[in-house]
Amino acid sequence: MKAAKPTAGAANATLNEEPLEPVLGAAPERIDAVVFGRKLMRWYGEHARVLPWRGISDPYATWLSEIMLQQTRVATVIERYVEFLARFPTLEALASSSEADVLALWSGLGYYRRARMLRSAAQFVVRELGGRFPETSTELQTLPGIGDYTSAAIASIAFGESVAVVDGNVERVLLRLVGQPEDKSTAGRTRMTRLAQTLVPPAPKRRAARAADSPANPMNNPAGDHNQAMMELGATICLPRSPLCLQCPVVDLCHTRGEHAKGVREKPRVRRVAHLLALRTQGGRIEVLLEQRAPEASLMAGMFELPPLPLEAITAAVPMPVPLLRVRHAITNTNYQVEVYGDDTGLRKDIPASEDDLHWTGASHLKMMPLTGLARKCLIKIGVLELD
Ligand code: SF4
What we know:
Strand order of the largest sheet: 5-1-7-6
Shape: globular
Oligomer: single chain
Bound molecules: iron/sulfur cluster
Largest sheet: 4 strands, mixed
CATH architecture of the largest domain: Orthogonal Bundle
Radius of gyration: 24 Å
Order of helices and strands: HHHHHHHHHHHHEEEEEHEEEH
CATH superfamily of the largest domain: Hypothetical protein, domain 2
Helix content: 25-40%
Number of domains: 2
């Protein structure tokens, strides 16, 4: 990203090193949409990052990028997005894929439910809607896995609907602009969504004409470009910590100019788990023992992992086994402390899974397997799976 030059407004602004106490009631919950939009879009036109899903008007590609970007860093998504589109270039290609192929391509992105939903939604569009992608945010919400945020993103970016996209980045920008503290209540969220909606430009009169225009020109799709600019501002300037207010295009409209007051956060849980690493050589190739998670599991159903071990078996073993590897792994609000034990510990007999769920898998096949993020991390650390 190019660094923005400080604006005259920024140069004159008094910026806060520390989070400000919000001046409740002093800042109105409204922003001049015309002035704000002009400043925001001028900045976006000059400083937007070049990303592979920008400047296109393919709803399938927009949808894929928005699903991948949920809870995953942009740098990780870029590579996976390109690979995924190369393998499944159309909605039809995705609809006729096998779940295992989709999960394998998703490996490392985490939150695998997103990949399953993506495939189910593609099948729904092909089977029930004759391949026609819904064009409005309301219709899009009838698809599996598409809620308020994703429907608004697709409808505005791919079809030009004047509907606000409110993700965590946008919410933070708005809270700071109006000088409010974090409010995770439904009422607080609703207020920010309403405020966001007041800023979205109306859809062009002849929306159909847009497809023939160049999407790179911000005037072609005011609502979609505005939403992307808001997300870009939150992701690159109005950062959660130490926002870059001197580079902010809307600093002179902002009532916080620094970090806003946060609500009390829940402490992450810590959980200790153990897995077995069993390797063998078969016909000159290395194989690793993997367990397939149950299809009805609430998390990562059907995916492959190193066989989990009960902690009681480790405590009861004599002598006490020493792990080959310790790994930290965080999923949502839980920090896992993972211990990986070698097969020489004799712990294989304690694997609770049935033989049917255990599979010896060639190391050269691991890249094509739908592995859990943790299994992938452990296998890379041990050197059985190569880094991409
Ligand atoms: S970057 Fe600073 S000035 Fe800009 S919206 Fe965020 S807090 Fe306000």
